[in-house]
Amino acid sequence: MKRSTTSISTEKIMSVDKPSNRLERLIANSSSSFILVGTFLLLFGAVSLFYFLQPYFEKIYLERMSTAWGITLMIAGLSLLAIKVGFLVYILSLYLRYKVIKSVSNEELPLCTVIVPAYNEGELVYKTLKSLVASDYPHEKLQIISIDDGSVDDTWQWMQKAKAELGNRISIYQQPENKGKRHALYRGFNLGMGDVFITVDSDSIVKQDTLRIMASPFVVNEECGAVAGNVRVLNRDKALIPRMLNVSFAFSFEFIRSAQSRLGSVLCTPGALSAYRKEAVFNCREEWISQTFMGQVSKIGEDRAMTNMILKQGYKVFFQRTAFVYTNIPENYRNLNKMFTRWERSNVRENLAMSKFAFGNFRDGAKTGTRILLLNQWLKMIMAYPAVVLMLFFIFTYPVLFLSSTLVSILAFSSMQALFYAKKHSSSEALWAYPYSLFYAFTLFWITPYAIATAGRSGWLTREITKEQIEEKQIEEPRVVAVSS
């Protein structure tokens, strides 16, 4: 069968980020092999150490069990383990019953508005818009809007280039100043003519059938208020961190969100790819744009906030596993921890917000599953500080026990993610679940406690404007604030 030109165009867009230099590939492969071998030597070494030092650990156990404090700690630890295992079994049972909502025909597809907010993305926004136009969604039912949120780089020029090439397939607008992603989306919601809004990050590439898969649940289920897409890592071949996170993302979306979708309660529609019923958005857009937390205007976590407000209206939120979007993620540690800190701060705010309605009669039908999901979120927050205290205690009192037991736990948990990824995608790539768990456990464990302590801060962190950039931008010629088809 002959492939369509649209499909070929999409593949070309996605292929631009693959490494072309053979030497770079060779060095990267050698480095990857070294990291994987080192990881497994460390983990299996820990298993051996745990086995050979069993008498020593049993002695410590007996000493601890002879004190009231030790007994209390043991009971608490076993109880938490039982809760987590029970939760995973529950999630597994939901996942096994998950089904993707099939795409509807062209005639049934709703009028759809795609909104692409952009800030300091450069050429990436051009590639994003090209991939959207290459979609197989009926042209007459698709409106694509991109909004430059006061970028200080050449983002606007790339948007103009896309406009020149794509013509009336897209409309581009420019904010007079940087006001944040939430305000750019708000403007897009107000400009949109569709019955369904789909938001796509400006550093992301969608597959040819992604938009129609995202829009279909709104047609077949009147209770559907929002849909989450399946986020994969676009730059996974460019650096170690994206390669590791690609496996973690697959587990987070395809396992966790699939289970949440079975309850109609996906807790967060990702910024990279989400869809919303227009009526649901309009019911809460003013509350959403003016949201505050601890006296500060909320500038982060707009995706989780919108999801919460839609769930609160009684709508259901689903996940479409086959609606793929490929997005860039940080390639260095500094930007990665900033991204995670931003996510965790918004989780603190939204867990509090969700608790105000989740235990009431917020929707018809079963609500217990949604409440269990929220309680699991709270357990992670509540245990953040006790876990750090216990970690420090064991590091200073029983360092060998701490290190070996931690590594054995990492091996067990990572195996679950690795097996899942190997079954769904690639056996060789699945091995990256192990170094990522090591990386997170020893370098990112502090994120949640820190985010809780600084939850009132709302800076974007990863794309903040420097004073020099502001001054440089101010001397440029006045900009046009809107260009449309």
Could you tell me how far the N terminus lies from the C terminus, measured between alpha carbons in angstroms? 35 Å
Taking all Cα atoms into account, the compactness measure Rg is 24 Å
Spatial order of the strands forming the largest sheet: 5-10-6-7-4-1-2-3-11
Structural class: alpha/beta
Mean pLDDT: 89
Assembly type of the chains comes to single chain
- Residue ranges: pLDDT <50 for 5 or more in a row? 1-8, 469-485
- The total beta strand count reads 11
Specify the overall morphology.
globular
Largest sheet: 9 strands, mixed
State the helix count. 19
- What percentage of amino acids are in beta strands? 5-15%
Determine the fraction of residues in helical runs and give it as a percent range: 55-70%
Listing every helix as H and every strand as E from the N terminus to the C terminus, the arrangement reads: HHHHEHEHEHEEHEHEHEEHEHHHHHHHHE
Question: Would you give an account of this structure?
Answer:
The protein is 59% helix and 12% strand. It is built from 19 helices and 11 strands. The strands form 2 sheets. Strands 5-10-6-7-4-1-2-3-11 form a 9-stranded mixed sheet, sandwiched between helices. The chain has a two-stranded antiparallel sheet with strand order 8-9. A hairpin with a 2-residue loop joins strand 8 and strand 9 (296-297).
